[in-house]
Amino acid sequence: MLDKDQIAAASRVLVRHWRDGAKLDTLETRLRPQSRAEGYAIQAALETQSLGQLFGWKIAATSVSGQKHINVTGPLAGRILSDTVIADGGTASMKGNAMRVGEPEFAFRMGRDLPPRAAPYAIEEVLAAVDSFHPAIEIPDSRFADFVSAGEAQLIADNACAHLFVLGSATTANWRTIDLVEERPQITLRGERYTGHGKNVLGDPRAALAWLANELSGLGITLRTGQVVTTGTCHPPLPIAAGDHLAVDFGVLGTASVGFE
Fold it and tell me: What is the Cα–Cα distance from 149 to 8, expressed in whole angstroms?
């Protein structure tokens, strides 16, 4: 079991690589997490070293394609920090980005706290705590050179491959009456069009949101009012390069876009 000094040291290594845009092969043995719990402990320490504040949460690997992309068997939670958020329609730097993919996502902003508790939160309870729905784009990356073989615990420590994030405006449509499972957002990249599907997000983006609330509850963490949760890609990760422009159109639910340099 890692002690608090080892956890702090592991987080410092990851933060240093994040800030330098550098990669590492693996955390040294004495700092390497061996469980999800140890991975999350290191991730929590990352937040204390960030230049930004906690903006919200991401879920990695909510789709089969996402799980294959980073070689894990299920979802991972990560922190979105305010200094990694790019304005809708803005430009994202490709510097140091090895994954080089963009992911169109369903995102929710919370309207009230969901504190830790013994009983799991039902989907309906979590949805009742949501304030607004947003189209979003995530631009993930890893501090590990070979993120495919890094393993679940190290990827959790690596903030579940969080890197950059774009949040579209809150929809003015009544998203609660729409079947998000069958939503098929249209994605445009390099003149090509792609179609996402809500069911790719853990079967239902609302179920993914509830998963995140319960994952945090199990860690003793409150999902707080105002925090954003982005629920994972609704389309297989799309390769991106400098000069590209990625746009996602959710129809009546709104749009989000980002360029790359």
Answer: 23
209 in Cβ contact with 114 (< 8 Å): no
Instruction: Write down the pLDDT at residue 123.
Output: 98
Q: Please give the angle made by the CA atoms of 2, 7 and 11, to the nearest 5 degrees.
A: 150
Other beta carbons within 10 angstroms of residue 176's beta carbon come to: 11
Nearby residues of 4 by Cβ (< 8 Å), 6 or more positions away? none
What's the rounded Cα separation, in Å, for the pair 43 and 35?
12
Question: Mind listing the pLDDT tens digit for each residue in 130-145?
Answer: 999 999 999 999 999 9
- Give the predicted TM-score (pTM) of the model: 0.96
User: In Å, how far from its chain's centre is CA 141?
Assistant: 10
**For 100-111, how does the pLDDT look when each residue is reduced to its tens digit (9 = 90+)?**
999 999 999 999
Q: Are 237 and 66 in contact (CB under 8 A)?
A: yes
Cβ neighbours of 39 (radius 10 Å):
25
